[in-house]
Amino acid sequence: MSREELNPLEHSDERTEESGAAAGPLWFPYPASKPVNLLPPLVLAYIGDAVFEVAVRQYLISRPKLKPHHLHVQATSFVAAKSQARLLALIDPQLTEEEHDVVRQGRNAKSGSVPKNADVIDYRHATALEALIGFLYYSGKHERLQRLVDQGMKLLEAGGGE
């Protein structure tokens, strides 16, 4: 077995098909079955939801209050559709044209259901944010993903968008 086969996460000099730019490694050795630009927006939102959840949990654990109940309450407030929609609005001016296209596709995707505690508009914008996060994750644009999420989280914490 080659070194890459034994530890595929070490090999990070992969290139994205569209741009030829270096793609960061995925967290686990399971690449998408299609190029990122061919993945449906709801599939991008599916992985984006999980990546955002990890970002929120890591953000909260970096702060002083580490009681499990407090972490859960705080995490729930960040991942609520209303908060995700606000975060998207806060980072929107920083998005590239390509990222705006992903957001538009995610916002317009028909999921077939809306959670009982979410406004339809907020839910669609939350899905758009998750699609963007999934797109950046699978595109290997992890630094860009980290920057946008970090800025959005800090703006939300400062009371932005209320």
Question: How would you portray this structure in words?
Answer:
The protein is built from seven helices and two strands. The protein has helices at residues 3-6, 41-61, 68-79, 81-91, 97-108, 120-138, 142-157, and strands at residues 14-15, 22-23. The chain has 162 residues and is an all-alpha fold. It has one domain: Ribonuclease III domain (Ribonuclease iii, N-terminal Endonuclease Domain, Chain A), CATH 1.10.1520.10. It has a two-stranded antiparallel ribbon. Mean pLDDT is 85; it is low at 1-22. The termini are far apart. Its cofactor is Mg(2+). One of its GO terms (biological process) is rRNA processing. Pfam families: Ribonuclease_3 (PF00636). It is an enzyme of class 3 (hydrolase). Belongs to the MrnC RNase family.
